[in-house]
Design brief:
This protein has five helices and two strands; from the N terminus they run αβαααβα. By secondary structure, it is mostly helical. Helix 1 packs antiparallel against helix 3, helix 2 packs antiparallel against helix 4 and helix 4 runs antiparallel to helix 5.
Length: about 150
């Protein structure tokens, strides 16, 4: 059913993960693209947002889609649990990939200071909502098992 609490958590996880497409991950204070070498421009554009990073883009899209698909599998709770765990794995892989990209950028250009933006923390927040959804799915599973015992 759509009105269950885990549906709300899954919907929030999908909305937050889709917000990653519109936010930046990192911001660097550079004068302009004309003052940067070509390799730095490429590294900078792949770190600032996920739009130029195909693996990060794919992981974010898969996580968003998985959250939306999982909402409508309310009759298949075991499949919902496994897809939620897979979604958590995608989010953790996305955080790892983004961090590795930032670490590579920092090691190649230590003189360029910058700030981590909110986009790096959105997958972590998504994992939190997915864990809340997982808790709700398990509560439903437990309730159904207890009702089956009474029959």
């Amino acid at each position: 059913m759509i009105q269950r609490i885990q549906s709300i958590w899954l919907l929030l996880a999908a909305i937050i993960m889709s917000a990653l497409f519109y936010t930046s991950v990192y911001s660097v204070a550079v004068p302009s693209a004309a003052d940067m070498p070509a390799k730095m421009v490429y590294d900078y554009t792949s770190v600032v947002s996920i739009k130029n990073n195909f693996l990060a883009l794919g992981l974010a899209a898969a996580s968003t889609g998985l959250s939306l698909v999982t909402i409508f599998l309310f009759k298949k709770r075991k499949q919902q649990i496994s897809l939620t765990w897979l979604n958590i794995l995608f989010c953790i892989a996305l955080v790892f990939w983004l961090y590795m990209g930032l670490n590579k950028f920092w090691s190649n250009y230590p003189e360029n200071g910058g700030n981590i933006s909110v986009g790096l923390f959105l997958p972590v927040l998504t994992v939190f909502f997915l864990l809340l959804a997982l808790r709700g799915i398990r509560k439903d599973e437990k309730l159904i098992k207890s009702l089956d015992r009474l029959r």
